Amino acid sequence: MPRKSKASFEVVPFRSAHDRSEPVFDPPPPPAHLGEPERLIWAGVFADFKLETGVSISVLTTALEAHQRAREAREAVAVDGMTVLGRDGQAKAHPLLAVERDARQAWLSGIRALGLEL
Q: What is the pTM of this model?
């Protein structure tokens, strides 16, 4: 039978349930380039979930950038209408509809990658 290391014989002091407080995590501020709706989502995510790794914070930032892009595209389409005139004068779908669709998918993919249940 192999010998136990010296560390395995150390006595671990008893801590009651009251002593087991978790360290306080101070969430980082949202990136300055995010709009107000995305900043509110940032605060909500950090209020409900623990995202402590740099990678998870980066994924959240990218997801919120996609959310912002989708929101801005939707706002532009609301002003311009769902169709625009093509170079031959025919009506065609507004190009920002595809941007909104793709950005919305990127937002949802980022949330799924983080495993958040929103």
A: 0.76
